[in-house]
Amino acid sequence: MFALSSLLLAPKALAAPSPTSIFAPQSTPAKSILDLSIFVLSITGTIFVVVCTLLVYSISKFRAKPANANSEPAQVYGSTQIELAWTIIPVLIVVVLFLATARVIHAIQDAPEPAGAVEVTAIGHQYWWEFRYPKLGIVTANELHIPVSDPSHPTPTFLQLLSADTDHSFWVPELAGKTDLIPNHPNRMWMDPHRTGIFLGQCAQYCGAQHAKMLLRVSVDSPQDFAAWVRGQQQPAVQDASVMAGRQLFEHTACINCHTVSGTPADGRFGPDLTHLMSRTTIAAGATENTPQNLRQWIEDPEEIKHGSLMPAMKLSDQDVDAVVSYMETLR
Amino acid sequence: MSAVATPVVEIPRAWNLPYRGKVAMASLIIAESAIFTIFVVAYLFYLGKSVTGPTPREVLETPIFFTICLLSSSITVHFAGKSLDRNNRPAFLVLWSLTIVLGGLFLFGTGREWHRLIYEHGLTISTNLFGTTYYSLVGLHAFHVTAGLIMLTVVLIFGLAGQVHQDQFRRVDVLALYWHFVDAVWVVVFTVVYIVGR
Amino acid sequence: MSSDAITIPALQVQEKPWVDALHEWVTTVDHKRLGILYIVYALAFLLFGGIEALIIRIQLMHSHNHFVSPQVFNRMFTMHGTTMIFFVAMPVLFGFANYLVPVMIGARDMAFPRLNAFSFWLFAFSGLLLYFSFLGGSGLYGAGNAPDVGWWAYAPLTARAFSPGHSSDYWTLALLASGFGSIGTAINIIATILCLRCPGMKLSRMPLFTWLNLVMAGMVLIAITPLSAAQIMLLIDRYLGGHFFDAQAGGSAVLWMHFFWIFGHPEVYILIIPSFAFMSEIVPVFSRKPIFGYPVMVAATICIAFVSLSVWAHHMFTVGMNSYANSFFAITSMVVGIPTGIKIFNWIGTMWGGKIQFKTPMLFCIGFLFQFLIAGLTGIMLATAPFDWQLSLSYFVVAHFHYVIVGGILFALFGAFYYWYPKMTGRMLSETLGKWNFWLFLIGFHMTFDVMHIPGLLGMPRRIYTYEPGRGWDTLNLIVSIGAFIQAIAILVFVANLIISYFKEAKAGNDPWDAWTLEWSTSSPPPAYNFATVPVVASRRPLWDLKHPEDPDSLYE
To answer: Between B4, B23, B132, which is nearest C510 by CB?
Structure first.
């Protein structure tokens, strides 16, 4: 039937075009899940075919025909043997399915953390992601950089998941199943990407008005690129005298209540850390590309880009906005 | 407007089905038990998890006397029902009133304890997790006691006006069943709050 | 013969002014009228919930659409879910139970007619209270808005800090009230079935419809109340400064989830079990055979009821429970599929060797069988926890549960409408419009909900008012939306059928389908007192015994 064929064809036909397909795993947890899911799909597919055949057969063979419509068929009340048969077989199927499932649950959830693992603390906010690398002294937002993991000496990334407000969920389908970020309830997940590249995802637990635009962008880097990125993030903010006007504005208005720029008086934590804003491809948690025009629009009136986000419109004059944008543009 | 007759094969000799009032009250009790279970689960789950404020051990005093009052009221209501069944209406009224008095005493005791907790120890529903779960659970029970007392009083008024007869024993018994439930819940709440929770 | 017809001469029935008729309906305690009130009420809310669904689907037709703002969209999906579950599915199923249970057991009315009326009006009020939120949600100031926290209202999104205004309170209070109404009806159903059966109708001789509604009512008692308890806790948090779900004070958001799903999962079984009840009455009649394995059907249902109380955290596989908890809920969720599967096999066993008549009720039942099978299988997929770590919170889950609720419950409901409308109104429903209803709805349903699985598999989460282009979701969402409109047309055909047939169609006799349970022994519609004399029964199919005195069921049971 349409349903089954779409489910079976989906992996083949649709894995390529979508960057968030669960059928294109690039990391061990996602791969274990896919293997289990193929197993489950084949069992449920078989059950479907068998039962459907019985159903189709019964409605075609046992239809009332004009010839025999006047008499009632044999009144059969039940059959103990048949009932037993179609109880025992499903029980066996469930046992097999459960054993396969439990194995994968333990393999993923109880995986020990190897020595070379990268540790990231992800904190969910309405509507952006805070990423801290405690051992590396890095704080960033929305775009996660992690190293590719070579199976011979693995460097997986272990994330500790926290929340500053409501419930969120970290979901990058090609890298792992999702895990929720819940206040007062730390969670843990891991991924070990097998190839470099950009992996997309988004928040999967309804967290408020702009849940839809709390996007995730994971950049899996080669070891050298990752090391370079880390070094860059560890630097304090670039000090550029030519944008002093913008910087003064930033530091004397409410911006610093929410944002941090390391090496300056700005140390707010309600909003994303802006120290290396220009190292990110997107702004507003993926809501739009990180270009000067978009940045200007965001500062002038965030509602235009992300209606319902918690960043207020700062009601600055055009000149002031330009100055602040120029300052932001130096924060590489 | 015609009805098709159904065949009479054999008329069962005795066709006695349960009294619907009892079945309904039993169903209500099942539903109420589920509500109380959830509050008890929350209470147990949050034991020891308060971030601030007084702990149960510091402030709770076991209300033995008032518990005895409430549990005795189950006995009096039981015998009140029995009296009515034997058409001993004066005894029914006396025992029924005694039930109300004992239940009222229990409520008074709860009120006194809450007064002490609030004014001497500063424990309110918003103080900490213990405060929230304690007042919710004990309060929910006290609410059910109050509702029961109101119903018992209504029956008492009818009884004093001479309107409650021996053949209404079954109905009175339904209310007594509710009252027994309220007492049983107190046994659980008492155990959870004053014994396990300390 | 033991019963006599009591006829009322036609001349004595006078034309009533409409005010009197209205007064009769508003003050009725007759289970049949209350049943119809429940059903009509549910149909009205079906239209509201359907409009909300169409708004959702228009907004999601393509990426970055601007049909409605995110705030309006979030209200739409919250209200759509809340309306459909609490103010469509529950009342329509209670309505059928109300109407049919007393008649099927040979009783004159429910055990507590006034409680019945009270429960209905409490229900009705609560629905209006919920919808008043569109006007009053923000309190005195502001234009007011409906709840936007999702139908499951996870903490801490419902805390005062994150949901100011009163929209969450409308959700809470409306559902508290409707919950109490449901409990009242459940108590009534249980007391009626246990205490008012006609002589000879032992529990083992009741129609399966009554058995399954008995089980459903029992589940209502223990499943709805956890939600009521959690909602009281939420109100304490919001208005008395409580900390039940306040993370700052050590409270737990996960506790809300546990309480909600302890309600939420049995709730969906509360909805499906009456649908099984419809199937178990209709399939035998149109296969011309008794239900295959009556005792097993009863046992399986009770089994489902118990096991369904132990599966709730399969809605929480992503919440971070430990691997043992996840394994436990995975296996219980798979186990609950076993008795459910047995029921499917028993229905097929009923059809096997029969003489199937493809009247409209049976068409819907066959649709149910196909679709419920698929829904159950996608449920098994979701029960395998690691697979659920990808599929949870995505459109795969949305597709799965709509498959159960629309493909299962609604199809069975359509079957029930076409089957019992003649009994309730005295007229047949048009078979032609019925077939249009069926095929249109089938096409629209499959177009929407088959395809909807795929965006989930491709990473589309739920509850998002828009999505990025380039994720491969655009065309799929467009197809899903078109299917929704086709279903809307089919519903309009259905409603038209209900209305037109009342005036135009052939009069149904007592027993248009040649069926076997007691409701077909009275007139259509039954008189207010149902039976002139209380029936006495000797088997599960009293009318079969009557029609086939040479071969009564009582010899074989």
So the answer is: B4
Contact A78 C330 (CB under 8 A): no
Q: Residue C332's pLDDT is what?
A: 97
Query: For the residues B154-175, what does the mean pLDDT come to?
Result: 94
B194 Cα to chain C: minimum distance (Å): 20
From the list B37, B51, B132, the residue facing C236 with the nearest CB is: B132
Inside any domain, residue C14: no
| Dist CA C149 CA C165 (whole Å) | 12
| Residues A100 and A47 placed together within one structural domain of the fold | yes
A93 plus A162 within the same structural domain: no
pLDDT for C102 beyond 90: yes
**Residue-range domains of chain B with CATH:** 20-196 (1.20.120.80)
Please tell me which chains touch C, using 3 or more CB pairs under 8 Å as the contact test.
A, B
Integer Cα distance of A298 and C247 in angstroms: 31
Domain that holds residue A254: 241-329
Structure tokens that stand for C181 in this block: 């109404």
Looking at the fold, whether A254 and A227 belong to one and the same domain comes out as no
Q: Does C457 contact A209 at a Cβ distance shorter than 8 Å?
A: no
Q: Which of residues 171-190 of C touch B (CB under 8 A)?
A: 183, 186-188, 190
> In Å, how far is C432's CA from the nearest CA of chain B?
29
Q: Are residues A61 and A146 in the same domain?
A: no
The pLDDT assigned to B3 comes to: 47
Does A130 lie in the same domain as A46? Answer: no
Question: Are A227 and A252 within one domain?
Answer: no
Mutate to test the interface with C, among A101, A125, A187, A210 (most CBs of C within 10 A): A101
Q: For residue A134, what is the DSSP state?
A: T
Residue with tokens 């999906």: C77
**Comparing C-alpha atoms, which of C208, C30, C27 is closest to residue C121?**
C27
A182 close contact with C: CB closer than 8 A: yes
Candidates B36, B38, B47, B123, partner chain C, best to mutate (most C CBs within 10 A): B38
Nearest CA in chain B to C217: B27
C513 residue type, one letter: W
**Model ipTM value:** 0.94
Domain that holds residue C495: 26-555
Q: Hey, which bits of C240-350 come out as E strands?
A: none
Phi, psi of C243 (to 5 degrees): -130, 20
- Work out the pLDDT band at A67, boundaries 50, 70, 90: confident
CATH, residue A252: 2.60.40.420
C421: CATH: 1.20.210.10
| Bigger pLDDT: C196 vs A151 | C196
pLDDT, residue C143, reads 55
From residue B125, how far is each of B131, B142, C274 by CA, in Å? 5, 15, 41
In this predicted model, what pLDDT tens digit does every residue of C32-87 receive, in sequence order?
A: 999 999 999 999 999 999 999 999 999 999 999 999 999 999 999 999 999 999 99
Q: What number is the average pLDDT over the span B102-114?
A: 97
Residues of C in contact with A75 (CB under 8 A): 289-290, 551, 553, 556
Predicted confidence (pLDDT) at residue B181 exceeds the cutoff of 70: yes
Whether residue C400 has pLDDT greater than 90: yes
- The total domain count for chain C is 1
**Which among B55, B155, B51, B59 has a CA at the least distance from the CA of B103?**
B155
Residues of B in contact with C112 (CB under 8 A): 20, 24
List of residues 6+ apart from B120 with CB closer than 8 A: none
Q: pLDDT digit string (tens) for C303-322?
A: 999 999 999 999 999 999 99
Å between A234 CA and nearest CA of chain C: 31
How far apart, in whole angstroms, are the C-alpha atoms of residue A167 and residue C103? 49
CA distance C513 to C516: 9
Chain C residues near residue B51 by CB distance under 8 angstroms: 248-250
Banded pLDDT at A14 (limits 50, 70, 90): very low
Reported confidence tier of residue C2, pLDDT bands at 50, 70, 90 = very low
Domain-terminating residue out of A212, A234, A256: A234
